[in-house]
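JOB MANIFEST
job_type = single_chain_structure
chain_count = 1
residues = 356
[input]
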Amino acid sequence: LLGQILDQWFESEPLKATLATDAVIGAMASPHTPGSGYVLLHHVMGELEGRRGAWGYVAGGMGALSQAIAHAAAAQGAHIFAEKEVCHVLLGKDGQAQGVALQDGTEVRSKLVLSNASPQITFLELIPQEQLPKDFVQRIQQVDTRSPVTKINVAVDRLPSFLAAPNARDGRPLPHHQCSIHLNCESTHLLHQAFTEATHGHPSSRPMIELCIPSTLDPGLAPRGCHVVSLFTQYTPSMLAGGRPWDEQARNAYADTVFDCIEDYAPGFKASVIDRDILTPPDLERIFGLPGGNIFHGGMSLDQLYFARPAPSYSGYRSPVPGLYLCGSGAHPGGGVMGAAGRNAALVALKDLRRL
């Protein structure tokens, strides 16, 4: 239990709760859930430019990272087809992957196929079920993909001014504006309470909020004087109590709760809002192909990690279909913007290609 680990090392409740947020981020879990300590480890392992455990903003927004990868691939001769939905993986008579068929009927032939789609989409939608072992299919179907995350993107006409650290008179960003700001995280009890509400099908009445203002470091993201605010919030269940849908009314009611909370810390925030974009778990699934809206393609619980990710005997990036590899967050070592699964899968695929 993460709670026990934090109690052992720290006395300050706000500090413990702040650390606990990285143990539950993206997970339908509380700091008191067994195995939550690993999720914290997952978020602090590694380094950025030589600084251990550090995170950073991508200049130009997260899309710039995708573009950088695309440019690097194109420089090596890769052909990129954007906005082309894959219909299914092409299989030879021997069951070997031979490419992909696109929704418009185009067939792209290849010796190997690497999928960074989720295991659910890769194996349950793009491959005929009769081509896969029954126990493997069952395992993929049983992966826990519950997601507590609702992402809210906000455009504001001025920086939030927090009661704890009011803005400077010139309106320039202060150091705390350039960091992750955690709200409703004064105690681990608050996080557990928010989690409990969601397990009963109700969006948290006092949700955990991680607030970032990337435009303070990257002014090109917003017009002069304005800013973009990224709100990573939880807990929101994928399915609301009583089977109610996440319609516009439910979306806006939850977003209003989040904004009311921010207003308590930074009076005037609501008046500064120009527009907002609300992405609930079903929206994240529909738009980005995240199963259940889960940002990791499946929970990062101990039963779904290491040799069991995405399934026992298939943690080495190869799949039951020869020539088909899994290289996304659903593969070992899991989620996060680090590229480890992709790099590892590429090495395995290249090794097999040389053998072929």
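[summary]
Residues 12 and 187 are 9 Å apart (CA to CA).
The chain is about 35% helix and 15% strand.
exit_status = 0
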